[in-house]
């Protein structure tokens, strides 16, 4: 790459250029190459993590019962994605070819509340709750926790299987790439963009299929998603295959509860949470 070309490229474009070359060379040597082991993949991942860890808002829309559990347990749970509502997402979050097992929880980095998010994740019963987590709270959970609990849910209750030492997990806040297919069919041109980046990056279908854990279809871009993701080598995970979620402890002060936890705009019951800024301005049917 010439110096002039390098200066004109965005950081994500530069990371993909390196990844593209490495992936092509590796596949020529071995068709079964896994892109996640290439340096270029890590550069893409680290770029998305560098952006994902610096947002001012990590909005988490949940049901009221889930909110009460988060506050009671002072924790959130990263899941294997099998219950997510985006079919592409949950089918590709833990692909069979990956050497890792992934667990994640989703947030919106939007600076404003979203009606769509309220309706999808906190609105079916009109009593949902939104947590506006700070980066300090989430980064502290990532960097200052010596071990995490791995387990599964049984009839709504978390069942611990074992402690997972911090050094076995790669834990990051990662911005999601949204992809768009420019043509129909197998030869479609594909572009990806991170919310906040001014330029899209053109990639091949092969490249898209080699980074499935980092992407969602552009139809979901209104979520402005940033994801807290833990990945563990399958060689460490395989002996505990019943683990479908990981408990992430949080340090939540009373001040946080009073100022950064919000009721659904349609909630009319008694609550110690703050009113949504949309309270009294919207309505929707169950």
Low-confidence stretches: 1-6
Estimate the helix proportion, in percent: 25-40%
Provide the structure class: alpha+beta
CA radius of gyration is 20 Å
Termini separation comes to 56 Å
Mean pLDDT rating: 88
What does it look like?
The chain is of the alpha+beta class and 286 residues long. 31% of the residues lie in helices and 28% in strands. Strands 2-13-5-6 form a four-stranded antiparallel beta sheet. α2 (11-29) packs antiparallel against α3 (39-52). The longest helix has 19 residues, at 11-29. The termini are far apart.
Secondary-structure blueprint of this entry?
Layout (H helix, E strand, L loop, with lengths): L2 H6 L2 H19 L9 H14 L5 E5 L1 H10 L1 E5 L7 H6 L7 E9 L6 H8 L6 E5 L1 H9 L3 E8 L2 E9 L3 E7 L1 E5 L8 E5 L6 E3 L1 H5 L5 E3 L7 E9 H4 L7 E5 L4 H7 E3 L23
Parallel strand pairs: 8-11
Antiparallel strand pairs: 1-4, 2-13, 3-12, 4-14, 5-6, 5-13, 7-12, 8-9, 9-10
Helix pairs in contact: 2-3
Defining key terms:
about 290 residues, 4-stranded antiparallel β-sheet, 4-stranded mixed β-sheet, 10 helices, disordered N terminus
Structure in a nutshell:
The chain has helices spanning 3-8, 11-29, 39-52, 64-73, 87-92, 115-122, 135-143, 205-209, 234-237, 254-260; strands at 58-62, 75-79, 100-108, 129-133, 147-154, 157-165, 169-175, 177-181, 190-194, 201-203, 215-217, 225-233, 245-249, 261-263.
């Amino acid at each position: 790459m010439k110096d002039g070309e390098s200066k004109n490229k965005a950081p994500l474009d530069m990371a993909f250029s390196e990844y593209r070359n490495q992936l092509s060379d590796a596949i020529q040597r071995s068709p079964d190459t896994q892109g996640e082991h290439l340096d270029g993949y890590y550069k893409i991942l680290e770029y998305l993590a560098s952006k994902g860890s610096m947002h001012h808002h990590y909005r988490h829309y949940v049901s009221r019962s889930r909110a009460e559990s988060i506050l009671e347990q002072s924790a959130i749970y990263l899941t294997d994605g099998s219950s997510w509502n985006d079919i592409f997402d949950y089918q590709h979050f833990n692909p069979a070819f990956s050497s890792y097992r992934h667990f994640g929880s989703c947030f919106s980095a939007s600076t404003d509340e979203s009606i769509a998010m309220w309706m999808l994740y906190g609105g079916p019963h009109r009593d949902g709750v939104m947590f506006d987590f700070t980066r300090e709270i989430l980064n502290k959970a990532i960097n200052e926790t010596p071990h995490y609990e791995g387990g599964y849910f049984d009839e709504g209750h978390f069942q611990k299987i074992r402690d997972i030492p911090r050094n076995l997990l790669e834990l990051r806040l990662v911005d999601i790439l949204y992809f768009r297919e420019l043509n129909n069919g197998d030869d479609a041109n594909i572009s990806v963009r991170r919310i906040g980046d001014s330029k899209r990056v053109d990639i091949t279908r092969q490249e898209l299929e080699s980074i499935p854990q980092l992407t969602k279809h552009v139809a979901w871009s209104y979520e402005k998603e940033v994801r807290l993701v833990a990945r563990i080598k399958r060689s460490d995970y395989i002996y505990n295959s019943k683990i479908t979620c990981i408990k992430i402890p949080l340090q939540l002060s009373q001040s946080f509860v009073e100022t950064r936890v919000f009721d659904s705009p349609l909630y009319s019951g008694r609550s110690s949470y703050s009113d949504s800024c949309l309270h009294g301005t919207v309505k929707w049917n169950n």
